[in-house]
Amino acid sequence: MAERKESWTSLASLLGTLAFCQTFLQLVLPPELRLASLKFLTRALRCFSSYCYFDVAEMDGVNTNELYNAVQLYLSSFASTSASASRLSLTRARNSSVTTFGLSNNDSIADVFDGVAVQWEHAVTQRQSQPSSWRSIPDVFDGVAVQWEHAGTQRQSQPSSWRSIPDEKRGFTLRIKKRDKDLILNSYLDRIMDKANDIRRNNQERLIYTNSRGSESRGRPWEAVPFKHPSTFDTLAMDPEKKRDIMEDLRDFAAGQAFYQRTGRAWKRGYLLYGPPGTGKSSMIAAMANFLGYEIYDLGLTEVPSNSELRKLLMKTSSKSIIVIEDIDCSVNLSNGSKAPKAPPLQSYSADPDTPDAVSGGKNWNNTMTLSGLLNFTDGLWSCCGSERIFVFTTNHIDKLDPALLRSGRMDMHICMSYCSYPALKILLHNYLGSEGEDLSEVAASELREAVEKAKMTPADISEVLIKKRRNREKAVSELLEVMKARAEGNEEYGGLREKCESNGVEEEEEEKRALESPKGVSDREDDSCKKAEDQEEKKAN
Ligand SMILES: Nc1ncnc2c1ncn2[C@@H]1O[C@H](COP(=O)(O)OP(=O)(O)OP(=O)(O)O)[C@@H](O)[C@H]1O
């Protein structure tokens, strides 16, 4: 007992002595000297430490240090879930729904990279007041030199030329074990820059670009507007398995930099979307862009007069983008010369309105853009200019495409968007009525299943019915059933008519005409187009 009392007494006297020394030093030493000795002590301690430290200051002279911003964004991506950060700052930009987490002043956070533990500390100190000469700015008016001096104290608003230099000095300090420094420093900083770029891209508004005639001469080959299409893979009505395959393919592509490098391939991928109108080809493109966070370049080939213009346009697309050519079968006469042109070559015209062609067709066609010019970008030497780009071509008539476009290796994935199946219908029911039909009676569900297979309606047709009646779920379902049954009957009638025509030797072309004119009937040939195309591809592959 006496021993414990003695130790408490000696501890108290030690603390008293330390307090006395501190007060004495504060009285005797001027603040500058105190600061210098503190710095010296810190440095001396760091010499013996097993850690090394890297300061990342917010300002590099008068310029902002990019690395500081990147570190801030990077740390904010996991600060809210990190157990090591005890106090976080929260910020949200005006008109933004994104909350950014940051490290509070002088707080620290741990991170692990390649199995190596590191620590970041955010240091904020008050900037020492600047000499008055620094706070003044010279000006000359009518040959007379004048000088402006800002007489405000810190934190008061400053002239705009100083506004970029904050009153506080902010910086991050990275602490790494000395033995790990050479192992990870560069790759760790690269990873931080990449991650920060990704976060920036996800936070900022994405754009959809389009080209128009003469925009190149105006100095802006692409015109852009914010891209806000709400379509996602969740809202897209299609076979879930097919959807999963596409999503996996996209995910592999986006994460495949090393793979493409290793295999000597340009980091790009091509998708051909085909199927009847209203089956969701455009919605699929929007879903792809939203899934990957990419921007879209909607390339109107009719506005591109020549291969060289096309090259200029494509060279000005950014990476992490989807380059879309919709309705490739009808917007241009892209034949390699292997097929006689069926339609006027819409893609090329001169600006001269007085030429005979312009008079006759409204445009003066001057066919200088070719399929090989286009394929050079999707497939050839130029495909490597820019990286991480996706090409998407869409068509309602895959059978009308030049075989060169379909050759293996051209478009990596051919995706058939077809009529609504029962699994796809369930997604539409969920989108519009808030249930996947699980609250339907067994009879209604099986009726729907049967009717949707026979009706051969596009998701667009079905959406139309559901959206009209979405306030009353039961009515919506019963009306949909009615419409689908009527459509199925129409198809059957049409099927019978077709058989009769065939037995009477009516030409195929006439049959096609009837199909187009029929308000309800869907040609079996159209219905089977996806299957046929898929079968053909399978045969080719074998
Ligand atoms: N698979 C689908 N999933 C969800 N909605 C769809 C789907 N297909 C069509 N829709 C609905 O129909 C509308 C039109 O579809 P979309 O423009 O994507 O079809 P498309 O196949 O590109 O047609 P087109 O060939 O005429 O361009 C969409 O806005 C969407 O509301």
From TrEMBL:
Region of interest called Disordered, as start-end residue ranges on this chain: 492-542
Gene3D superfamilies tied to this protein: P-loop containing nucleotide triphosphate hydrolases (3.40.50.300)
AAA+ ATPase domain location: 267-421
Record's compositionally biased regions (Basic and acidic residues): 492-502, 512-542
CDD domains per UniProt: RecA-like_BCS1 (cd19510)
Entry keyword set: ATP-binding, Hydrolase, Magnesium, Nucleotide-binding
Any GO BP annotation: response to stress
Cofactor: Mg(2+)
GO molecular function: ATP binding; hydrolase activity
SUPFAM superfamilies: P-loop containing nucleoside triphosphate hydrolases (SSF52540)
Reaction equations catalysed: ATP + H2O = ADP + phosphate + H(+)
Family note: Belongs to the AAA ATPase family. BCS1 subfamily.
PANTHER family the UniProt entry points to: BCS1 AAA-TYPE ATPASE (PTHR23070)
Stated name of the protein: AAA+ ATPase domain-containing protein
Gene source species: Eucalyptus globulus
UniProt lineage: Eukaryota, Viridiplantae, Streptophyta, Embryophyta, Tracheophyta
